Amino acid sequence: MYKKLLIAGASSALLLATVVPAFAGNDEGGVRVENDAHVRNTALAVSNTGLNRISGHEVEGSARIRTGRADSFAEVQNNVNKTNVDVCGCGDESSVKVENDAHVRNTALAVSNTGLNRISGHEVEGGRIRTGASYSDGYINNVVNTTTVGGE
């Protein structure tokens, strides 16, 4: 599941880079760059070993529920409107004008569950429920509108 989410995020970034290219032009010895991006990401990770049930009219001591570990991790990473400009110091003054506009909306939700297990019946003698650990984590990282200007 983690790999699928990572691939979806990388695919979104690649699509954004090809669909919304930067406009760069030479403005009388200077450089002008305009970037505009609209990004919306949703990452959802769910793992579940819970909601198990043993039921009957009579449930005796050998009834057992044992679940394993449930882990989920949702991640969103964006690098939007990153501009690197190399300006040649060829004796003329060079100017750089960069306009960046970005709108980013992220949602990351991670849910894990090993609970809500139950043993029930009209007559219950014994029975045992043992669940594994449950772990959820979410991570969002956005780097937006960064510009570096360098030259020789």
Structural overview:
By secondary structure, this protein is mostly beta strands. It has one domain (2-151). 12% of the residues lie in helices and 64% in strands. It has one helix at residues 2-19, and strands at residues 23-27, 30-48, 53-59, 64-66, 70-87, 96-113, 118-124, 128-130, 134-151. The strands form four sheets. It has a three-stranded mixed sheet with strand order 1-2-6, covered by helices on one side. A two-stranded parallel ribbon has the order 3-7. The radius of gyration is 27 Å and the shape is rod-shaped. The two termini are 46 Å apart. The relative contact order is 0.29. The model is unreliable at 17-23 (pLDDT under 50).
Shape: rod-shaped
- Low-pLDDT stretches: 17-23
Give the radius of gyration. Answer: 27 Å
Order of helices and strands: HEEEEEEEEE
Mean pLDDT: 81
Short description:
With 152 residues, the chain is mainly β. It has one helix and nine strands; from the N terminus they run αβββββββββ. It has one domain (2-151).
Keywords:
152 residues, mainly beta, three-stranded mixed sheet, two-stranded parallel sheet, 1 helix, 9 strands, 12% helix, rod-shaped
